[in-house]
# Entry
Amino acid sequence: MYYDLLRQIQEIDPSKEGGNQKMVEFFDQLEKEYPNSSNIRRTRLIYVSNEDFVKRIDTYIRPYFIKGLPAIFSEIKGILNTKERQTAFEQLLLAHEKSLAEKGTFNGETEVQSPCPLLWCYMVLAQLYDHMKKYDTAMEYIEKVYATALFGGLANVF
# Structure
């Protein structure tokens, strides 16, 4: 509601041609003013193009994986409103899963993480597959969560 009023004052209409890009620029400017607002970063994801979506959602989820915020999927599932976005997000998570499992780093990074981001990656993948109605695959990831948490040495972390 608040963002809608600001958007109306600035006369930005996302339904017009180029409107989504103007909305992204609008939220980019708001983020400069309020750099700690996760709500601004999340709301901006609604308007980003599919080409920019993967980079932006990756930037959005990484801190939550590191901190261990289990509710991250419930925050973003409304943004995954097309097959293209679901597939892009799935590919991003699978790349992170592979890199975290093999090297302990996020895909394309060199900083070694604790085992917790891998656990949260499994959790979000399970939730994503459940959302996509791929229940068998979701259950496989739930089993990985249990195996990682119970037998992967994470029992002492929590």
